[in-house]
Each structure stands twice: as structure tokens, then as C-alpha cells.
């Protein structure tokens, strides 16, 4: 009973959006659910998230943070205590009005983010400068009732981590905000092979209630940007709203300075769109659920040969596991090797090993590289020694490919006309005055927004705003791009 | 500015319930939240949960299960598809009626458990016998609107894992149900040092919709039982309700057989109440956030001494970490060593190391054992070699203490009067007919319930029900006990 091969994907040059939707379902990352805008994250997608979690969590702990868990439900009135926060989040709340068969006296919101309930507890936990800094993080689900949803990119429920810290001084809190942005950027580069750009959001794009929002922006293969992680400095805004004070060294009462920073399942969308091609996913080896898949190949009606090949595949897999490689043997029956190759190609497995009776005789195996498409014959006994290094180089090549692509798709505009033209094809550096009305007008005309004021990049010195002709609002040229 | 020592705990012989409430707050495991029945799990409590998760998750994966994630919200009407399930869970649902500023067309419940939404997806994913077994698990938050709540034991929101599997035959599904019960029992014994009893629930105590519910029951130090993990065989109940069918080997359509199994933050309550004493927690070393806490001690106004002691504490900590020990150096200023000792005693750290100038001169450190209370002098250079073994023996002694306590508090009753008398002091084996009305009458009179029909224990052969005089309903005597 042969299994039908799935149809090919829409070429991503032709319709990137269709390509994305096909990939997420056909690579078994997600499925629809009966609840509008909520998706099931299937095992292959969830394994990616587990790998992201493990690495990020280790980085959080290495920078002194501890995990904890706050309640899912937050009294709706809490959101009203911080004026900008309520404006930003109220329209998207999902609200529990009934529980235990009765109407609640006061409605409870499913957390869209937890600053408010955390503020309430921090006010209780923080008394003295000795209690600071408070460096906490939680891994949780959150909900924002979005109208248009897309798997990973915009979903009513999503999984994330939210770090929430409190500090004695603005300086320390600003350092923390930057430190966690750098953690995100380092993670994106070193584990996901995505050369993100670090920068600061303009006032209009800040988190609701923040004085500063830092962001990492990733370039997708259609030239658009994806905001991939943000880190916020709240100043005393939440401390004042929730009365989080401490006795300082001089025994004077002062407000703490807080930060928050978040990274979500949205990043899986970034991985898909930063690396994928017309055959499907290409996964960065350090996060791939399977770094290597071994497909044993046997002739029909050759039970002996099948057993020998199966035994050798298991032996190679054990040797690779011992070398620290995440490896899977695909011994499924009723599917042709070609069908399996297609599946693992679509699922973006970095290296495939094909192992048939002839290979066995020659004492070799064929290693297929998902990025270059090359097939190399490698001696069986050399595999465990060779593959960890090959995976490391795969990561570097993937990073280099993404960096080249990014750099080829960032341009600079000196006039508004140039901006309008160039932003159709990628990201554009341009001087901007910082006026929110001008930002809005540019977005209206081009669908592009200011992604960030980059921490590094061309200086704006001696230039004027491409849109208004006014002086630059920032020390550097900003990055305009269309975005997810 | 000296920190005030916290007051002592209520002795647990005097008021076990007051002792429990004091311990959970004063050991910084939880805090109240502004939402009734929801608690904040503080870093020290959450670190326990992370350790539980890590070990259980490895056991699930070693038995072939994969993780995935289903939506938080479930259409309320889904619960109505399985008659017993809706009866069991409807009264406890928290319901979202409004989202995104509008009233929803159909209300959505926050999951109390996910059989229904998972059933809907399994019906889509399972077509052929080749798709079976489906062995999935999710780590998630769930909500059951309880009236009376207690930290960890009964909370409106709690964290858990729920495994959901589908099989071609009843036999395979029953094997899985038992396999996962054994995983729970092994975990409880080997990691938490809790000698749980494995058994089957009577019909009245089964999970809503299950044909068989297996349980692990743990004995608390007040002689009560705590149900600590359950594994359910659903037969075809959910398959029929959600139309989960497959083409079998003969190409005939058949219903799958499903199981589910869950383990939650409730187990933290079991750890507290199975091991704690009047001084606070006693944590099993394999799950303790800190297995060893080192307190450097220095004389006032001896900065040089303080520096030498601090340096040596850091060196010992590094050596212990390299030996695989989770170790913390408590270098906080402004607190006396005695205050710190009390705190780590209350927090149940298995081994404490005290390191002062005199110890340094002698080349030794004092190792204090939380279980025995003994203090031993150990050569500094021997610590890293000695402590891993000492922690292993701590685990064994803790297990032995719990086993002795359990065995001393299980008795057997041959008459109803004996049952009534003995169940005041612990667990009681007695023959029962299996009649639900008799079970209810016994509960009414004694507040004790049938905890389980144990998988091992005294045979009921030749005996009759202590309550009704009718023949035994089960091959073994059941266990009666009061329970949390």
C-alpha cells in the first residue's frame, strides 16, 4: 500500500505567503484547531520550540535569572492602572465572565502579558535595596485576540517567555534591557543562524507603557522584516501604577525601575522564512529536532539485506548519538526511499544519510546536505567523527547565506522617491525626523514602517529627513521595511 | 540592619493543616495572588517543578512519547459529546464569553483537561493502523474552578502534563495505561523518595469517561493519602464521541482505544507532606533546587578572614558543581549565620556546609544533615568526592524513613468497627463488596474513601465485605483512608 507523495510547494518567489502556509502544514509543524486563531503545535514544531526554550533558558540562568509562575487570569481592572498599557491591550483581551457555574463578580482577563499582576506581587516582595535587583522570568501561554491570524506569526494564543526585572536605578534597568536584547541577538545568531539587526523602536512602535523598546529584527527571504524579540525599559511607570517602592541605602523610599523582555513561538516563523526554500524548511542544526536522518534502503524481497542494512543503520545512529548528534532512523515500512527523502527535505533536516546494500559492501554511506544539495560518500567508520563538524559548518554556511542575503537587500535612500522605490525590494536606511505623523504618512503610502533605529549603521549626521526635510530625530539613519 | 528571624512553625502533630500552610509560604514556595484560588509559584517552588519536569519528561521520551501543544480554549459544546465527561467537568469550567471587545458567538472554556479537543484532532490525524500508536504528551496549565483551594493541593489553575495516546487494540491501550502508572511510581520512588502504592480506583472514583483509572497513592505524615498521579484507560468512549477511527490490517474500520495520564504541581504538596518536619521542608536530593548550601562564616571586622573564607567557599562550590552537585553559596550580607541556617533548614536543603576561619585553618568544613540533624567534619579536599555519595545515601534514608512510616501506618480491619477505629490513624486494608452505596455510607460515617484496589496486598479470598457482609468485589482487600 504505497503512500501518495504530497504535491510540491508553491515556489516562494511566486507567492511567498502561500509558500509559508503550505510549509507550516506540510512540514507537520502546526494544524488548525476548532478555536479561531489558535493552532495546534504538532510534535515536529514543538520539538523546535523545546530546543529554543532549552538554549534560551540556559542563557537566562547564566545571566542570573530565576523562573517562576504567575496566574493565567488577571483582574480586568488591573489593566486600567497604567494608562498606555490599558490602551494597548484592552482591545485584545479575552475575558472570563463565568466560572464554576456562576457569573463572576469582576471579570478576569486571560493574560496578554503579565506586567500588571507581576507589579502587584513585586510591590509586596520588594521592601529594601537588599531585595534588588529582582531578576525573574516565566515561560507561559498568553492570549491576544487578533483579527487576522497566521500560524506562529500572529495567533490568538501563543507560547513565550516574559522576563520581568526590578532595579534600584534607571542605569541598572537600562543595562538589563540592553543585556537581554543582546541575549536574544546572540541566540538568534548562534543557534538559529539568523543575522538579526539590533535597534531601538521609535516612540510610536514602543510597548504600551515602556520608555524604551529595543528589538531584534530579522530579514525574511521576501525582503520583509520580522520583529523577533523585544526588551523594554519601563522607567517608573509600572512602579508608580502598582506602588513598587523600596528603602534605598539612605533609607529613603524610592520607586523601582522595571524592565520586561519577551521571545515567543513567533520566532519559529522567523526560522521558516529566513532559511526555507522551494523544497520546504531548512532548519538550523543547533535547533533542528533531528540533525541527521538515516534512511536504510533495501531491495524488495531481500529480507537478509534489509536486516543487515537495518542493523548497520542502528549502529551508526548509536555512534552518532554518542557523539552528541540528534539522529533519527526512518525505518517506516510501506514508503519508498524517495518518498522519505522528500519528506525529510521538506522538513528541513540538515543532513540525511542514505544507507543501502551497495554502500554497505563499500563500507560507506551517502551524506546528503539540505543546504547545498550535495551528496558525499563518507566511510561508515568516519561518520561519527565527521558529522558533528559537518553540522557546525552547515550552521556557518546557513548564517553566511542569510547574512549575504540580508546585506544584498539593505539599501540606502537619500530622497523620499528612493525610499518609496527601494522599500519594495528590501530594507532601506534613511534619515527620519522622528515625527509620528510623518511615520504614519510613509506607512500609508508605502506599507513600510520604521523597524528600528539601529544600534549600528550609517550616521544621520549632516542629513535631513527624506520625508519632511527636517533635521534627523536620531543619531543614525533608521531602517524602513515592510514587516510581518 | 539585622533581618528579623521568622517565627517558628506550628508543630505538625498539633495542627498538620496549619503547619502545611505555614511551610508553603515561609519556605517561599508560593504566594497568594489577586485571583481567588490561583497562586503564584515562587522561584524556589518553581525550581522544584522544573526538576520534576525534567526527570519525568526524560522518562516519557524514553518510553517513546513526543510533546506537542493544544489550545488553551475549548468550545464548551465539546464537553457535551461524552456524557460522563461533561457531568464530571462542566461544574468546574471557567468560561470566556467576550474577546476582542465583542461577545463570542459560542462560549469557550479554559481547558480543565484536554481529551475533547485532542479527540477532535486525533480523528483527523489517525487514518490507518500505520498511524498507531499515537503517543503524545503536553505540559500545560489547566483550570478547574474549585470552591475550597489550598496551595498545590487544590488550586483553580495548576500546571501539569497530560499524556494522550491512541492504540489499535484494548490490550495495547491497557498496557500503556499500566506502563505510565509504573513511570509515575518509579519517579515518585527514585526521585522523590516517596514509596507510593499503585492501585486501581473503584468505579465511583474513576476519571469522568474512563473504563479504568490507575493511581499512585502517597502517605502523608498525618496518615492521610494523597492521590499523586493517575493513568486512565478510556476504551472506545472518546473514540466514539469524537469519531476517531482507523483502517485496520484487514482494511476494516475500527475505533481506536485511548488512554490519558496526568501528573501535576499537586505532587509538590506530596513532597512537602511526606517528608517535612517541625523545622520545615525536607527535600529529596534528586529534586531539591539546592542540594547543598555553603554558608561562609567570618568574624565581624575581619575583612581578610571574610575574603579567605569567601574564596574557599567559591572553590568548594566549583568543585562540587564539577562533581554534578547543585550547590549555592549563601554570601548575603546583613544576616547572621544562624539566621541563614534556619532559613535553609526551613527550606529543606539536604546538606549544609558551614565554613569558618577555624575550619579553614584545620582544612575541614562542617557538613550538616537536614534529615538526621548530625554535623560531621569533612576534609575540604574530600568534599567533592564525598558529597555525591552522601546525597545518594540521604535519598535512601529519606525513602527508608517514609517506607517505615507508611508501613507503621497501614493496618488491616476484619470488622467494620475495626475499620472505623483504625482509619483514624492511617490506611486500612479491608474487604469491600464494591457497592457504591456502601462506599458512600462508609465515607459519610468515617470521612474515609477507598483509595484504591492495590496491585499488591492482602488477598480478599475467603473474606466478606466488612460493611455489608457480601462477597468481595475485588481479588484483593482495598485500602481505605482519609485523603487530600
Explain what you see.
Two copies of one chain form a homodimer. Chain A contains 14 helices and 23 strands. By secondary structure, chain A is of the alpha+beta class. Chain A has three domains: 16-275, Bira Bifunctional Protein, Domain 2 (BirA Bifunctional Protein, domain 2, 2-Layer Sandwich); 292-390, Anticodon-binding domain (Rossmann fold), CATH 3.40.50; 412-481, 2-Layer Sandwich (Translation Initiation Factor IF3), CATH 3.30.110. In chain A, the strands form five sheets. In chain A, strands 3-7-8-14-11-10-9-22-23-21-20 form an eleven-stranded mixed beta sheet, with helices on both faces. The model of chain A is unreliable at 1-5 (pLDDT under 50). Chains A and B meet through strand 2, helix 2, strand 3, strand 4 and strand 5 of A and strand 2, helix 2, strand 3, strand 4 and strand 5 of B.
Topology:
Two copies of one chain form a homodimer.
Chain A: H1 16-26, E1 30-32, E2 39-41, H2 43-62, E3 66-67, E4 73-75, H3 76-79, H4 83-89, E5 94-99, E6 102-110, H5 115-125, E7 134-143, E8 157-167, H6 170-190, E9 197-200, E10 212-219, E11 225-235, H7 237-242, E12 245-247, E13 253-255, E14 257-264, H8 266-275, E15 292-296, H9 303-322, E16 327-329, H10 337-346, E17 351-355, H11 357-362, E18 364-369, E19 375-379, H12 383-408, E20 410-412, H13 416-422, E21 427-430, H14 436-446, E22 449-454, E23 478-481
Helix pairs in contact in A: 2-6, 9-12
